[in-house]
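An instance as discussed:

___
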Amino acid sequence: MAMEKATFGAGCFWGVEETFRKLKGVASTAVGYAGGNKENPGYEDVCSDETGHAEVVQLEFDPSQINYDQLLDVFWSNHNPTTLNRQGPDVGTQYRSVIFYHSPEQRAAAEMSKRKISESGKFNRPVVTRIEPAPKFWRAEEYHQRYLEKRGQSHCAI
């Protein structure tokens, strides 16, 4: 079976990558930038909050081992989807909650999962996660790839 791609923005990409990288069925992860208006942005560009990019993790997964719905469950349970352009102490549009879909099936699954989480009562504020077609993915600088793993950490210190 062919590998599929998934792209998620859920705050600082270091922690998001580490969360997904450990899942059985996820073959590879890369952190980068998506959804902005500048060609080939760098970290400083994105942090300026002027390019419109989100910090994202793009992963390749084997749908016979882990399906897209399971990835969505991990996405929802590992960040706060009710804070606009913010996760914890990190503030700016690059930290927005966003699902970039790669197929009509992913779009439908993402919209259904957002509806479910919105109606679940888990959050007392509206879910602000955006669901958008996957734009060009710009791979982040090499020092950002597997950042926490390289430092022997499992999550960002908040």
Q: What stands out?
A: The radius of gyration is 15 Å. The beta strands are 4-10, 26-34, 54-61, 86-87, 90-91, 97-101, 130-133, 138-139.
